[in-house]
User: What shape does this take?
Amino acid sequence: MKLNLQDYRNIVESLNEGIIILNKDNCILYANKYTQNLLSTNLKNLLNIKFSSLFSKKLSKLIEDSINSSQNTLNDIEIYDKNNKKLFINISSEKVDISEDFYRLIIIDDITKIHTEEIKKSCIYKISEAIHDSDDLDTLYNEIHFILSTVTDVKNFYIALIDWESELITFPYFVDQYDKIPSPYKMKKGLTEYVLKSGQSLLLNKEIYKNLIKTHNIEPIGQSCYNWLGVPLKLANGKTIGMICVQNYTDDYIFSQEDKKILQYSSDQIAMAIKRKVDDIKIHKQAHYDDLTGLTNKALFHDRLDQAIHNAERKDEVLAVLFIDLDNFKYVNDSMGHSIGDKLLKIIGNKLIESTRKSDTVSRWGGDEFTILLPNIKRLSGIYKLCDRILNTHLNNIIIEGQELHITASIGVSLFPQDGINPDMLIKNADAAMYKSKELGKNQFHLYKPDMNEEVMERLNVETNLFRAIKNEEFQIVYQPQLSLKSNKIVGFEALVRWNQPDMGVLAPYKFIPIAEETNLIIPLGEWIIKKVCEQAKLWHDKGYHLKAGINISAKQFNQDKLVQIIQSTINETSIKPSLIELELTESIIMKNVNRTLKICKELKKMGVSISVDDFGTGYSSLSYLKDFPIDKLKIDQSFISNLADHDGDDAKIANLVIDLGHKLGLEVVAEGVETQNQIDFLRKYACDEIQGFILSKPLEMNEFEKLIHSHSN
Assistant: This one.
């Protein structure tokens, strides 16, 4: 079939590519409909104008040079349609000779879709590479910003993350011409929240913006912007973890559906990348940081100390290790609950950080123990000041839930290189110095000395053998008599415990009772003591010796929930008269938790058990508890008895005052630590009821004590 000119024209007009014919001056003679649509104009506006003038100045010269040269193809030319939509085209040209004239045939291919797909793939690939190469999230966010800048306008770009449990929005990456990086905040009703809540992308314009405000879906936050594109960051399970946003405050670039598609394709990769990095950071944090306080843990502290030692060796510097143990922290947990204890540990961790330099490392070693690494020490005075600051400033006046806590600590210090050349030695020796601080009264610090290790080893040996000792009943009770000054007869005794340790011999209470307290072994040990003393008191009672059995109750014992139950059970098992049992409590125990103490004391009194206040005068200055608590007896501390020979001295006045006070309140008064006849004469003069001390007898074993009470009964 022969085609005429119109047939050829119809074919050209139906092509899905642009066809343009130029004259020898490169002016347009013809353009098919596809070209007109692509360039958003009509043939009338195209005729007789230079083809290159359809493009920007930069592109115009490039196209003109290409047409006039042997190069006949230009790829990936970026243009914009009437709606400012970005397009990508390929332009090819070919010279056509007709008679003596020549023309140029221009073919335009719209490759926008292909180009967009390639961009998407390229973004995903580059983001994947960034995920692999980035060591931290900050680096990754910067890489993502750069990658997106190659495909769209990202002058103003931010990443927002959401914690759905707390509804807290954070901005780990934020670049904006006008707004500063927002601080983390609870969800409001901004555009960011709209995207997060809906889980849908939002390509904004002025009309959509006004409609969202009108329908109360959003409220204006920050600098108003209508040229705005937000895309949610979703995981594979569909959960939204955040969003990415680009915005432009001018119309020099209008975000399009293609931009939206590019960000959407990239968002999946970005979400996975952030999730992976966050998980990696979480795993790293769990491995190297304490969950409760956020401080470095034992493992990371050890690594940093090792590195610091290498640096110190190289630079010939001194470093210090501080080992800090809170005094009586267990009492906080026992009396106030573990939640208060946890809050206290967090506060102290923060206070230790505040006390130290940025170059120092503060670690939670475990429980209520902390360590501090101090590199590059110039003077010992700096360490002294730090320890003093911790003990006398940062641990004072801690308030939790409206309650003021008075916290003390014991600190040990070791120095590199004189006290150790590796992490284990330095930590061990700082620990030994800390125990020395505890031994000498707590709330102080000490530098390590070589002989401290012997003391620590002894303590560790005691701690190791204590559990076995309770199981094997390696303990014995000794009895110190109490004499009535009125009848001159033995009326009772204070039961004291000794440990017959197979390897170390007989150990006094001060050697093992504090350790028993710290390890909670005081509970089974105390229960054993109560039972044994009651059994013995019952035996003596059956022999005709009606003696009050004084049993010391530690803070740990008193604060356990089963004390009243244990006493009642012991009474039932031994058949002892409750009136023969006298529980000795210190003032500090009584005042620790007044309401709870009062309740327990009333329950004990209801059973018929007596209560005495031991070491009276050394504890709380307030005496109001004497009239409020069901107390039977006051025991004057021996520190006031030693100087009674001086009748006008302060100690004598205090002793006289206590005796008088006790009697006015209807209480019996016992003087402890009586060693001389002069002291007895004084106490008798002022009508003290009973005495206890070496002048009467040292603590005796059962048989010796029985001989003594027998001699006094004759």
The chain has 25 helices and 27 strands. The CA atoms of residues 156 and 177 lie 7 Å apart. The longest strand covers residues 86-98.
